[in-house]
Amino acid sequence: MRLTAGIHIADTARVVTRSEAYDPPEYVSWQADASVLREWDQTLDASRSRRRIVDCLTPREHLDLFAGLLRFRFMDTFLKRWVKQGVISKAWLGTGEEAVTVGSVHALRRGRSGDVVGPMIRNAGAYREMGMPMAAVFRSYLGTGDQLCKGRDLHIGDLEYGLVPPISMVAALVPVFAGVALAFKQRHEERVALTWVGDGSTRTGDFHEGMSLAASLALPLVVVVQNNQVALGTRVEVHTRAPLDKLHVAYGVKGYTCDGNHVLDTYAATAQAATDCRKGRGPVLVTATTFRMGGHATHDEAEARDMLPAALFQYWGRRDPVGTYEAWLERSDLRLEEGAGAWVQERDALPQERRERNRFLLAEVARAAQEEVERAASEALESRGTAMPDGSDVDQGVYARACD
Amino acid sequence: MAPNEGDGVATYLEAIRQALWEEMERDPRVFLMGEDIGEYGGAFKVTEGFLERFGAERIVDTPIVESGMVGAAAGAALMGQRPVVEMQFIDFIANAFDQLVNFVAKSHWRWGQPMPLVVRGPCGAGVRGGPFHSQSPEGWFHHVPGLKIVQPATAYDAKGLLKAAIRDPDPVLYLEHKMLYRRTKGELPAEDYEVPIGKAEVRRQGSDITIVTYGAMLHRSLEAAEKLAADGVEAEVVDLRTLLPLDDTTVMESVRRTSKVVIVHEDTLTGGIGAEIAARIADSGFEHLDGPVRRVASRDCAVPFSAPLEDAFMPQVEDIQRACGELVAY
Ligand SMILES: Cc1ncc(C[n+]2csc(CCOP(=O)(O)OP(=O)(O)O)c2C)c(N)n1
Ligand SMILES: [Mg+2]
What we know:
heterodimer; A: about 400 residues; alpha/beta; Rossmann fold; about 45% helix; B: about 325 residues; 2 domains; 7-stranded mixed beta sheet; about 20% strand; globular; binds thiamine diphosphate; binds magnesium ion
């Protein structure tokens, strides 16, 4: 099975083309808008310290950030396709919000004994970015038996990769991650615990309790408030009167805001927050403003279009996190062989042949991402044929130590 | 001062202190978390002196965040720590219900991750605490696969069960009856010991009738048994100690010997764990029974504040005695 979101390197088209069937309409004929790109550059230059963090990224790291966005986008596209084909009944997607997850994960220390994260429904891209094979996410949707959770839950995690599975109850991970951070602090480990909460989830008791606890104990916890301006079927201005970028004041902790559609800004803001935590200045709230370019899940996309002002879709549609980053990278100096720090400041002056070389590199990244997602999906489908759980041990393992 | 000093006799409360202290000495992963447990020493002074010995990193004083605490205990447990959470009164565990039943209890089944944490706190009525400081929460949690629930009735068990709970890889609700804190005393061995989770204990032998009970009701049941003995009725008294999972073996062995059972608990009647025990006995012991399985439990209302109301609410020695007498005569 191939994605219709194909890849072209023809001169005028975007490197990553869009699919009429699966992309939001605003993305289908997406073109970089000069004012949006200017805004992107201004965001980069708005903070010296963030700019320094971004300047330390190597070309390879940039390409991997780009790949991360694409892996997430393509994974969602595939899930949508599965819904359409009746393989699964619905899927929760991160369309338009990919940069929040990808930027923050890439800013962490990944790998064994590294930082630990807890993804929520809009953060499924975190699994692969933390190192879990992409097929795991597809398998979770199919409920196959060849997973750590043996098909018992749709939510997945694996401490091997620093991933804690969420429960459905939103914001329940905030106290849990305060505890993860507490363990790090007690053992004097320089590790960071990070989880995301939606705008709606900031209204829960658990968000408040978790933040209060983490603040009172000065824990190395980063909570990213992913303000996509809607909670299921309720707009942010209806459910919350307080400014979401000022929540940190109530807890007496550091707070950063960032552009949730700007992967370099989410990356840099998370990097700042993580550094604060490692220096004992946690917890930190990072508020990322973004927009949900679809429904709460695949079943209510039309309702979301009815409920939310069209202008919001237009505004945020022009700020596609994939397209804007692609356009920026295209104008950047991506000489892989030369390592970090080789950025051309007057990016628009990049010679034409280098821009073409960049497009070629980006297309390679996109092709690899697409192939990875396709391979993962077919692996998972294979599991569905060969490794469905049989139910004979469904009540086993309730306890780690049974009482005989 | 370390609690384990002086002669071997200790109160139930002191036994709890000793278990906590010794486990903290033994295992650096063990830490305590709760409201006012540090400088203040806890509402019941269970952790008095702990802060000085173990420091603020392991005696974690928290804001008023029951759900926050239990969630944090879960997160720390995932990272390999061994948290013990104190509920100032067990009634407040209701505020942590979601974390317990959804995150904590399902963990091992859901993704194979053990949850070695303990939530402990004072439960039970009889001290005129009113509807929000007197409850028996075991029924709320008995229906939750993945949790273990224990309730000691003696000082010896208080210490041994708490040690076992802390060492157990599963989440354990440790219910300590506040009526017993200072009223119950016992000889504690000098050496380290555990009381195994999942094992009931026969506290009094008898051949005429079995009383299945736990917690403070053990003492009332034993008193009732003595009165029954004066009338020539020998009651066997089984102290469950672990409420989840239930020790069916010990209960069934006793039922086979006596053929008659009264279940006594302080929790309210409807949907209480007596119902589950009765159903199990009916299921696997029907042919041994010589009469209906009876339950003596608190009335189906909240725990009242006023003294005469509270007395009327919960089982008294006479209620147990009467139920047993009637069943023996059945
Ligand atoms: C405690 C709890 N209440 C209700 C729900 C149902 N629910 C699932 S997602 C959601 C909206 C969450 O909104 P937000 O936090 O903004 O996250 P988003 O979906 O926008 O990413 C609701 C109400 C839930 N999962 N958990
Ligand atoms: Mg939202």
